[in-house]
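Long-time lurker. I teach an intro course on protein structure, and each term I like to show students one example going from raw sequence to a predicted 3D structure in token notation. This year I'd like something fresh instead of my usual example. Would anyone be willing to generate the tokens for the chain below so I can use it in lecture? Attribution to the forum is fine with me.
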Amino acid sequence: MMVLKTIEGMLKRILFLIFLLACLAGFSQRFKAGETYIKFYSDAPIEDIEAEHISVSSLLDIETRALVIVIPIKSFVFKKKLMQEHFNENYLESDKYPNATFKGKIEDWDGSHGETDATAIGTLEIHGVIREIRIKGVIEYVDEKIKLSTVFPIKLEDYKIKIPKAVFYNIAEEVEVTAKLEYLPYEKN
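-- Reply from a regular --
Happy to contribute to a lecture. Here you go:
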């Protein structure tokens, strides 16, 4: 009888620990991007080029400040279909290199609520080339939403994106990237 009560007590403690761990696991510090917006803009002498993207995947862990962003290249939308075709086939070779990816951490932010200037440091992979990068931006953490916003330049030659001489004046050597991502708490399904 005494052994049975001891086993029963141990089972209750184990079940309580399992319940507690499940609750703690549910209280995650991870956030997943919901609404996203990425734009790049090329200001060139003959023609400006602009493309937008709204289906970006991203996770942010505020405990570790780790940030991962994956951008499917083919999902950029241009005003002119021919530009979009040339972008995917001739410049970014999106069949061969389907995604642009940022992996890094956010500095200058302790996960606190409010608006904060911060810098993301990590690697940016575009066109199969991985480079270290620092991106300055703003984080706004209000209620259960986190918003990241930034504007930064990218040099095409840094990512081995070649501009043919025939269209050299149509495409700038440096493009401006604008990113706005809104995160909500991540819930595993």
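Some talking points for your students: The mean pLDDT is 84. The two ends are 43 Å apart (CA to CA).
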